[in-house]
Write a structure and sequence with these properties.
about 325 residues, alpha+beta, 4-stranded antiparallel beta sheet, two-stranded antiparallel sheet
Length: about 325
């Protein structure tokens, strides 16, 4: 998996494409481009037969640049990184942050590709892809792009476990703006692999991540809350905020179970300290030191004013509105 984090601090676990799949995609793209170039060349030769030699050479150079260089650039720009070969093998070109590429990225990749693919028959591109940790060629390095696999077998992608219901919504007031992308990625990787870790090692890792996350947010870990459950709840809160920002949803409740995912289950080991369940809809917090409990207001309940409680006698009559019907 490639450790990619978007500008919205959303961790993307993408699988970089390896050399064999990329080579097959390039061969397919070149085959289509050469076929189109041959057809265009035949048409241009028949159309420019009356021109002199210099004009025919200029037309042939223009057709070469237009079809074999400009064609792949236009296709990658319009398809956002999905050429015919990449679409056939489930690949896609993305930016280093996981976003779709633009014209400048495709232009740099195409210009460098003329040297490392066409002029050297792909030798330079193969060597660069083998040396690079992410399988990038020189065009990807200069353009700041990465070729990833879009089609991944179902069930192999790890899911972040949902937090316990009693913790959902409890951290809605936390300031998550100071949390770096690397810490989010570390928390996500721990949550997706905590069942595979040794209990002592996983517990120590959870404690360390929880303390670092609490230091970044400025709020300590609530007493009695296990470190793993705290990480899952804060990660869920970040996902809720991103969903609200992306889709404009006014209210986001507790998420439904993801197919193939699972709820948060603490790793095996010593039992956590008991804690008092908190409602996921309206979480209760202990009163501040010295604060007085709120007094109930007559006729008003927690869910709103009581429409049946009225008047001085409280006989269940509706209050007068001062409206008199016309005679």
């Amino acid at each position: 998996m490639s450790e990619l984090v978007t500008g919205e601090a959303v961790a993307l676990e993408l699988r970089p494409a390896k050399l064999p799949s990329r080579a097959l995609a390039v061969v397919l793209d070149l085959g289509v481009a050469v076929a189109v170039y041959i057809v265009v060349t035949i048409g241009l030769v028949a159309a420019t037969a009356a021109l002199d030699d210099a004009a025919q050479i200029a037309v042939s150079i223009a057709s070469f640049l237009l079809v074999l260089v400009g064609g792949p650039i236009a296709v990658e720009t319009l398809s956002h990184g999905r050429s015919l070969g990449k679409l056939a093998f489930g690949l896609r070109v993305v930016r280093d942050d996981g976003g779709p590429i633009r014209f400048r990225h495709a232009l740099v990749r195409g210009a460098v590709g003329v040297v490392e693919i066409l002029m050297t028959f792909g030798i330079v591109a193969c060597i660069a892809s083998l040396v690079s940790e992410r399988g990038r060629r020189l065009g990807d390095v200069f353009a700041g792009t990465l070729v990833v696999r879009e089609r991944i077998p179902e069930g192999r992608m790890p899911y972040v476990p949902a937090p316990p219901p009693w913790l959902a919504g409890r951290f809605a007031e936390l300031d998550l703006s100071a949390v770096p992308d690397g810490l989010w990625l570390a928390v996500r990787q721990y949550l997706t692999r905590m069942r595979q870790l040794d209990p002592q090692v996983g517990g120590a890792m959870a404690e360390r991540l929880a303390l670092e996350l609490a230091a970044r947010t400025g709020a300590p870990v609530p007493q009695g809350v296990p470190a793993g459950a705290y990480l899952a709840a804060v990660m869920h809160e970040r996902q809720v905020r991103e969903a609200r920002r992306t889709f404009g949803s006014p209210t986001v409740g507790y998420p439904a179970p993801v197919p193939g995912g699972h709820a948060f289950i603490p790793p095996s080991g010593p039992a956590p300290q008991p804690f008092r369940p908190v409602s996921p809809v309206a979480p209760s917090f202990p009163p501040a030191p010295g604060a007085h409990p709120a007094r109930p207001v007559p006729g008003v309940h927690a869910s709103g004013p009581d429409v049946h409680a009225s008047g001085p006698g409280g006989r269940g009559e509706r209050p007068s509105t001062g409206f008199a019907p016309p005679a």
